[in-house]
Amino acid sequence: MDESADSVSGPGRATIAAAGPAIAEACGPDLSSLLGATVTLACEGVEPLTTDADDSEEAAVPVIHQPARTDDDPPLPLHLVLPRPDAVTLAGLQLGKPAEDVEGLRADPMDPELLAALKPVLKLVTAVAHRTLEDEGLSAIELGDPREVEGRAEVGELASGRFVRLRFKLSVENFPDGALELLLPDPSPPDEDAPTDVSACFVEVDEEAGEAIEALATALGWELSLVDPAELFRDEDRYADTSAIVVPWAVGGRSGLEIAESLARHPLTRHLRVVMASEAPTRAQVEAALRAGAASFVHQPFEERELRARLPG
Description:
By secondary structure, the protein is of the alpha/beta class. It has two domains: 5-185, 3-Layer(aba) Sandwich (Chemotaxis protein chec); 199-310, Response regulator (Rossmann fold, 3-Layer(aba) Sandwich), CATH 3.40.50.2300. Helix content is 36%, strand content 25%. It has ten helices and 14 strands. The chain has helices at residues 13-35, 57-60, 84-94, 99-105, 112-133, 152-158, 207-220, 256-265, 283-291, 304-310; strands spanning 39-48, 63-70, 77-83, 141-143, 147-149, 163-172, 178-185, 199-203, 223-227, 244-248, 250-251, 254-255, 273-278, 296-299. Strands 1, 2, 3, 4, 5, 6 and 7 form a seven-stranded antiparallel sheet that branches. Helix 3 crosses helix 5. The longest helix has 23 residues, at 13-35. The protein is elongated and about 60 Å long. It starts with 12 loop residues before the first helix and ends with a helix.
């Protein structure tokens, strides 16, 4: 694929994020019917695709990459990505193998039979995404051949241009939870003058949490500050240089969802990337947060690696 993201006009990030829960809800029953096992997807947010080095254990797992493209003019490139163990699970069930046999294959490289069996599974996911986003002008989608690559960094190199990752938690009956990603071009124009650092606010009233956030700011080299939920809209200059705001599921006796919705509407804050936070986010919480205007979700207590992945817009 040699098309750059600048040559396409795909769905914007907000549209992609809003469509995520609908894609997940529609894919689950269809995949369950196809594979003969209960399958659910839960949308976990949208974020930029980067090719930065990532030393995490997750990034080291080989992944299966399936390119796709529409027949638009110019064509809109798409990519599906999932860790190899999860790809083996889906392909093995598609072939009708018993769960215990599939489990024994999850640590091995995928052979041609498994790769071929995976294609109709991923075609189903792509078709659902197409139906959900078709109002944005996507036309018929043609899948390339799935292939195994060394990790997400290599996918970033294969995906020419700027993309966003629509992330899903993949749950298959009798198997460990996994992941699936749909990569779509990011049509927002690049900002050559954009700063390389991040400035973000955390909605918080707990002084101990404030100390932890101060430590994270030092570790990350970012400008991180706290704002009391009662003070959100009282300072016209507070958010002048701020790009993101992190909202707990509940804070100061208030609902984080209500705060997120207010932030998305208010002229002082509607430009901010809203990120919700919870100790153990459920599928329902993530979907509700995305509907309320959040762009992503993070875990509490906050961790440096996750903030690096979720806060930049």
